[in-house]
Design goal:
Elements lengths: L16 H11 L9 E11 L9 H11 L7 E4 L5 E4 L6 H21 L2 E4 L16 H10 L5 H8 L2 E7 L11 H17 L5 E2 L2 E2 L5 H9 L1 H4 L8 H11 L20 H7 L7 H9 L5 E3 L2 E8 L8 H12 L1 H11 L15 H9 L4 H17 L7 H15 L5 H10 L13
Antiparallel strand pairs: 1-3, 1-4, 1-5, 2-3, 5-9, 6-7, 8-9
Helix pairs in contact: 1-9, 5-7, 6-14, 6-15, 12-13, 12-15, 12-16, 13-15, 15-16
């Protein structure tokens, strides 16, 4: 389920503004009963013995070349800073998804271990400044574009990692909002997921003041690039408008650097036809340069969860999120739980509204988010056996609930305690080793 597009830039048939709107409305939401689930797990790659030391580009290139020879069911891609991402194929059940990714991760870890490298789950690299590993026209253009809004773009590209849960868009419902109920739930429940799984309180060996620094980065990139569309209209209409009004990151071309226009929206590009007419391929590419917390790609891609600690930490947010969306009883319960939280959003798009900012800054120290998370985990635990989850999965969710959710904590709190030395361990710049 990777979103890395082809760099093919051959000109094709131009598209008009009306055609763009029709294409976006048709391709980004595919309706029907929820049948499949997927996950995209990103990891930072580190030295097994001394993770605070950067891995040289030469070692990364060598081990990634070895990984390309390993047969995997998931798509294996490399992020701009050298992070690894495994994107599962659509699975018919939660357990099929977990089984596929677990097997692929075991194969990847075995290859990395041969070179004394490993994977670590942090939402934001706590040690290293942004350093770009991939040197490709796409990422040259992305860096140039994002640099205009400050350093957050480079940090997002090169030092962040996440767990992205992919779920079907669901049924088309009667009324003007159509798909709005499931779409709305994703954006309100998303704040609870940010708070419950926050795991990025550090950058440059120091606390940032946020439990999810990764969410802070998305906020700083700006609403046009990383914000959600309005929730007050039909999702198809809102997303099509958002795509057309979003700034164009780059205009691809054969040979040489890509153009990085400033202040050019896709709507304006279709009208001006300059510097060249946009095509269907340009539209597809443009959508991959938008990073809202919930991205419609035929299915719904929930992008707000920080990468998690431990080899299997990614399983808990995948299981909880899937249960709260795909089990009808749990989905209805989740909808009721998060409905009161919507007032704190003040009708502003995520992640730039007060609800999401409080989730990223305070985590489950926020009383309302804490109460909602406890209730959501209870609903998920009731639903997981109905979805065929094994005892091991339900026990992992229960353990996470008891360790973090019930006492109002998240993994970021563990990292901060280790920094302060309040858990009995030594503290200092190497505390995360």
């Amino acid at each position: 389920m990777s979103d890395t597009p082809s760099d093919c830039t051959e000109p094709r048939t131009p598209v008009t503004e009306a055609e763009v709107e029709a294409l976006v409305r048709g391709i980004c939401f595919k309706t029907g009963p929820p049948r499949t689930v997927g996950v995209e797990v990103e990891w930072l790659v580190h030295e097994l013995r001394t993770p605070q030391l950067p891995v040289t580009p030469e070692r990364l290139e060598a081990v990634y070349a070895a990984l390309r020879t390993v047969p995997l069911r998931s798509a294996l891609t490399t992020e701009p800073g050298g992070q690894l991402e495994l994107s599962s194929p659509p699975a018919a059940s939660l357990m099929e998804c977990i089984g596929t990714v677990s097997a692929d991760l075991a194969a990847v870890r075995a290859v990395l271990a041969e070179d004394d490298l490993g994977l670590v789950g942090f939402g934001q690299d706590p040690w290293h400044p942004p350093r770009r590993f991939l040197r490709e026209p796409r990422y040259d253009a992305m860096e140039a574009c994002l640099d205009r809004t400050g350093p957050a773009g480079r940090a997002m590209m090169c030092t962040s990692a996440s767990v992205q849960v992919c779920l079907d868009a669901g049924h088309e419902e009667p009324g003007p909002l159509g798909l709005g109920r499931r779409w709305w739930l994703a954006h309100q429940l998303g704040a609870v997921l940010v708070a419950a799984f926050a795991n990025s309180p550090w950058a440059g060996h120091e606390p940032t003041g946020w439990l999810s620094t990764r969410q802070l980065l998305w906020m700083e990139i700006g609403a046009g690039r990383a914000g959600a569309p309005s929730l007050d209209m039909n999702p198809r209409t809102a997303w099509a408008r958002h795509v057309l009004e979003a700034p164009v990151m780059c205009v691809r071309r054969n040979g040489g650097p890509w153009d990085v226009p400033e202040g050019l929206t896709f709507r304006e590009w279709t009208r001006s036809q300059a510097p060249r007419p946009p095509t269907r391929e340009d539209l597809d590419y443009h959508i991959t340069t938008l990073f809202p917390p919930v991205r419609p790609r035929g299915h719904l891609e929930l992008r707000m969860i920080d990468a998690q600690p431990g080899d299997d930490g990614w399983i808990v947010p995948l299981a909880v999120t899937t249960a709260l969306f795909d089990d009808p009883e749990a989905a209805e319960t989740a909808y009721r739980i998060v409905k009161p939280l919507a007032e704190r959003a003040l009708s502003l798009p995520a992640p730039h509204n007060p609800l999401w900012l409080d989730a990223a800054r305070q985590g489950l120290n926020d009383p309302e988010l804490h109460e909602a998370a406890v209730a959501c985990f209870a609903a998920a635990l009731e639903a997981l056996p109905r979805l065929g989850a094994t005892t091991e999965v339900t026990e992992a969710v229960t353990a996470y609930r008891d360790r973090y959710v019930v006492p109002g904590r998240c993994p970021a709190d563990d990292l901060l305690e280790r920094l302060r030395g309040t858990d009995g361990r030594a503290h200092g710049k190497d505390v995360l080793t």
